[in-house]
Design a protein that fits this description.
By secondary structure, the protein is an alpha/beta fold. It folds into 2 domains: 181 residues, 5'-nuclease (Rossmann fold), CATH 3.40.50.1010; 73 residues, 5' to 3' exonuclease, C-terminal subdomain (DNA polymerase, domain 1). The strands form 2 sheets. The protein has a 6-stranded mixed sheet, sandwiched between helices. A two-stranded antiparallel ribbon has the order 2-3. A hairpin with a 2-residue loop joins strand 2 and strand 3.
Length: 269
C-alpha cells in the first residue's frame, strides 16, 4: 500500500489560527488581559479541530506536526538580518504549545521540535526522502518556500483556503514553473524573510529572463543579455550567492526516525 504522509508546518498553522481567535478581542492592537485566557482556550480548541479536519480531508496514512527549533538556525549565522522585524510569538501563546501538542497527540499525531533546524528544512528533507521512494507527501502550509519542491509526489495544501497550491497556482502567481522559483527568488529576494535580491530586478523582469533563458546560470552566461542587466548581476554576484543559500531548503537533515514511527492508527484518526 502506498504511503501518504501529511506534514504540518506547526507554527504556520497555529499562529494563523491564533490571529483569527485574537482579532475580535483586540482593542487598539492590544489584547485585554481579562480576555487572554479565553482566546488561548479558543486557540487550543481550534487547533485540535483543524487537525481533525486535515486528517479527514487529506486521509493520510502517516502524519507529523513539525515545529521550529528554539535555537536560531544556520541562516542567522550567515545573515544576521534574516527575518528581521518579524513579530515574535506572544509569550502567552508560546506557553500553550505543550497543550496544543497534547491535543494533537490525542488524535494520534506526534509533534517534532528539532534541535537546531527550521521546520521548513525538516519538512523538505522528509518530503524528498518519501518522494524518492515514489510515495506521496502533502505539506500543510501557506509558506511559499515549499512551492519550490512540489512535484508529482510532493503537494502543498493551504488549509485555510481549502486548496492545493499546485503548478497552476505557482505559474499564475510567479509566472514561472516551480523548478524555477529558487532562481526567481535569488534575483528578486524574499521580503517576507528580509532576504535581499538584485536591486532593480523585480518579479516581472526576473520571470521574463528565466522564461527566455531557462535558468539563472543561463541568464548570467547569455552573450546577448542587456548591458544594464548584466551589470546588475555582476555587481550583485556575492549577494545572489548568499541569498540562494538562505532560500534553499535543506534536504539532508538526519531525521532519527522512520516512517513507521509516524504511521497513524486509522481507527483512532
Amino acid at each position: 500500500m502506498s504511503a501518504h504522509v501529511v506534514l504540518i508546518d506547526a507554527l504556520n498553522l497555529i499562529r494563523r489560527i491564533y490571529a483569527v481567535q485574537e482579532r475580535p478581542f483586540l482593542f487598539n492592537g492590544e489584547l485585554a488581559p481579562n480576555t487572554q485566557q479565553q482566546v488561548l482556550h479558543n486557540t487550543v480548541q481550534a487547533c485540535f479541530q483543524a487537525l481533525q479536519n486535515i486528517l479527514a480531508q487529506l486521509e493520510p496514512s502517516h502524519a507529523l506536526v513539525v515545529f521550529d527549533s528554539e535555537k536560531p538556525c544556520f541562516r542567522y549565522a550567515l545573515y544576521p538580518d534574516y527575518k528581521k522585524g518579524r513579530a515574535k510569538m506572544p509569550s502567552h501563546l508560546a506557553q500553550q504549545m505543550n497543550k496544543i501538542q497534547d491535543s494533537f497527540l490525542a488524535l494520534g499525531v506526534d509533534s517534532l521540535e528539532p534541535d537546531e533546524d527550521e521546520a521548513d528544512d525538516v519538512i523538505a528533507t522528509l518530503s524528498v526522502k518519501v518522494a524518492l521512494r515514489n510515495q506521496h507527501t502533502t505539506i500543510v502550509s501557506t509558506d511559499k518556500a515549499f512551492l519550490s519542491i512540489i512535484n508529482e509526489n510532493i503537494k502543498v495544501y493551504d488549509y485555510f483556503n481549502r486548496r492545493y497550491l499546485d503548478e497552476i497556482y505557482v505559474k499564475d502567481k510567479f509566472q514561472v514553473t516551480p523548478d524555477k522559483l529558487l532562481d526567481l527568488w535569488t534575483l528578486t529576494g524574499d521580503t517576507t524573510n528580509k532576504i535581499p535580491g538584485v536591486a532593480g530586478i523585480g518579479q516581472v523582469t526576473a520571470a521574463q529572463l528565466l522564461d527566455e533563458y531557462g535558468s539563472l546560470a543561463a541568464v548570467k552566461n547569455a552573450p546577448q543579455l542587456k548591458p544594464a542587466i548584466k551589470r546588475k548581476l555582476e555587481e550583485n554576484q556575492s549577494q545572489m550567492e548568499l541569498s540562494r543559500k538562505l532560500l534553499t531548503l535543506k534536504q539532508d537533515i538526519p531525521l532519527g526516525f522512520n516512517l513507521k514511527d509516524i504511521r497513524l492508527n486509522l481507527a483512532q484518526a
